[in-house]
Fold this sequence. Notes:
alpha/beta, five-stranded parallel beta sheet, Rossmann fold, homodimer, disordered N terminus, NAD+ binding (chains A, B), 2 domains, 6-phosphogluconate dehydrogenase C-terminal fold
Amino acid sequence: MVGRADARVRVAVVGTGLIGGSVLLRLRDTGLDVAGWDPDPATRRRAREQGILCPDVLEEAVAGRDVVFLCGPLPTLSETLTRVAAATEERCVLTDVGSTKAQVAAAATAQGLGRRFVPGHPMAGADRAGLASAEPALLDGAAWVLCPGPNGMAAFRQLAALVIDVFRARVVPMSAPEHDAVAALSSHVPHLLAGALAGAAQRSALRDAVLALAAGSFSDGTRVAGGPPRRTANMLLGNRDRVLTELAGVRAVLDELAEALRAGDAAALTSLLDEGRSARAALGERAFTTHQREFPAAADHAGELAYLRELGASGGHLTSCRVQGGAVTYTGHLPVPARLG
Amino acid sequence: MVGRADARVRVAVVGTGLIGGSVLLRLRDTGLDVAGWDPDPATRRRAREQGILCPDVLEEAVAGRDVVFLCGPLPTLSETLTRVAAATEERCVLTDVGSTKAQVAAAATAQGLGRRFVPGHPMAGADRAGLASAEPALLDGAAWVLCPGPNGMAAFRQLAALVIDVFRARVVPMSAPEHDAVAALSSHVPHLLAGALAGAAQRSALRDAVLALAAGSFSDGTRVAGGPPRRTANMLLGNRDRVLTELAGVRAVLDELAEALRAGDAAALTSLLDEGRSARAALGERAFTTHQREFPAAADHAGELAYLRELGASGGHLTSCRVQGGAVTYTGHLPVPARLG
């Protein structure tokens, strides 16, 4: 799937930090024709030292490419999208890897790029940053959200096939707003909790002793607090309302836990903790059923889009997307016992 | 240090679950004469199948032993302590591994056991339980809190030397109330946050999608929510007031973070996150200075006790404790730039 009949797929990565650099290295290792670009001259030099084509001018890096991954900081995405769209052909598929999706999706629609921009978010990361920390395996096997739009189905299929083939990604199709609602609880609020725990330790009169006795619970619970503060702040601000809503939900459970503790109510406390254990157990032990779905490749896409979004909303994912003989065939996986309606 | 002149040290472990079982297996692997006991007949059978002496009667397991580790659930410790003390000689050193210390320390003092009971807490664990999950390496190199009392200095020294020799423990000397204040933030509150995050996911209408997109931040931040709810509840209830106090401190930082987010104040949000990053960075990169301190072995112990408690409160630990020629010599380590007063 990754090679055209006549040539290798030509891909560019704009913003070659931790995520972009890892995307680029894996694409190159897979044998694709890759180019990179980064606003930082030192990063461009480092990329060239690793044998990567990395011109000084953004437009040169993306010209003539089939697919461009936008991997820069969230606040720069809209402007980068404009420049990259202007410097590429209409057939060039564009995507990003940002941790919030509604803002950039709206920007793309406003720029008339709904046919070829597919908002994306691979669920991987690290408490590091920069090309020096990049590694080709970082995204292997990741859950990778892609947001299909009613006019962008061809671009979605092409990109889904690419990330499945290159990264063995589990593609999770979702609308951009649904992604942001889910990511608020599955990623953004955990960053706030980690920041609050680590911040409280930093302020504590017992700080040194707390760090000396940091159990696994503290070390795990503060890991992402080690990430770059500006990057985390951008992520939270890019999804502000949904993060505050989900935070309120977490605080409601925390209130109940604190009240049961204050009351010395062992039964209530145990019962509340058992709720959380159910979610945690489901995280480790999820079983999936596998199915195939076929749609006419050239239809109005309404049925295909509805299938994809319901799959993602149900906790499911795709591991194959093939277009052949006028039909598109998906291999999908749904968690047991969830069902498609 | 672990062998007496005339015989191997004889140790018993009462309560052979995850922690007790791991303690027992490591003690046995080191060549000590060990016995175990557990209230559960099936656990006793399993221990015997592993070649461990494990009589049906508690008193038989502990009779004639030099050291007894009490590793049962927190609510049972006081009663077990009474039985074990009655069944052992005055020279037998007693300790526990519970995650809160003030309650059991008070119970020991009330029973007149201050000379030979040393409250203990190795900072290790897992989201598992039971002898089947035990492994001899679980506690290797752990920070291991021991609480020396004014009358129990000889017992403290003996136990410190034992856990350093057998487990390569970093012994953190602290008073029982100070341990509980520190553990509230370094372990107990993180369990509440993990429970609240996992519980909110369990209640969410988006539960399946949230689990599908669980990023490292969610997975790390909920790990201890997978532990046994009753064990976690006992731990929290055993340190209730301090946990609620430290939780209030974490919530205050969380309030500030939420307010900066609500206000869209990127600078304030970044600054708050940077506070947490400082603590997290200190956790990974702490450097230590090493020193030796010597005290007369038979003095009134006031200076020795003050040194030990200040060492622990400053984030320091011991890696050696030797009694020779009428003096006790400690090798201590203090985080840079903390200083003893």
